[in-house]
Amino acid sequence: MAGDPARIWEFFATPRNLDSLTSPHLRFRMIDDTAPGMYAGQVIEYRVGIFPGLWSRWLTEITHVRAGEYFVDEQRLGPYRLWHHEHHFTPAPGGLHIIDHVTFDPGWGVCGDLSYALWIRGKLDRIFDFRAERIRDLFPGSGPARR
To answer: What domain count does the chain have?
Structure first.
């Protein structure tokens, strides 16, 4: 991603900016007044629309932060049994390379596996595709990679 690495990091290290990276179809709403900067131990509460008229409370904790390099958010309460999202920022010519690594388990046994195959995977792909497009708009160059 082209751009000033410090400016890009500052954008990502500001929890309120998550709104601008989240697809409108998710109906994302931050609930609490979050601190302006990110820190390990920070808890962020928001709601996401699962289906029309059905909302889920999602509570995440920022568990690790190394300024300019990476941060990790983990679900503490939400729709999945496990959500562990690593955001890595590595120097690249003229900017940064951003890699998202998500480990999650929907839970619910066989029903969760079926839900993932029929619905969750596509929804997650759309969420991260939207995010990549927004990042390219905000910081012209290339978008983030997922693995």
So the answer is: 1
pTM of the predicted model as reported, rounded to 2 decimal places: 0.86
Specify the pairing of strand 145-146 against strand 95-105.
parallel
| ∠ Cα 141 145 147 (to 5°) | 175
The rounded Cα 23 to chain-centroid distance in angstroms is 11
3-state secondary structure of 49: strand
Please provide the distance, in angstroms rounded to a whole number, between the alpha carbons at the two ends of the chain. Answer: 17
- The predicted-structure confidence for 20-64, as pLDDT tens digits, reads as follows 898 888 888 888 777 888 999 999 998 988 777 888 899 999 999
CATH number of the domain bearing residue 125: 3.30.530.20
DSSP state of 121: H
CA proximity to 45, closest of 21, 78, 79: 78
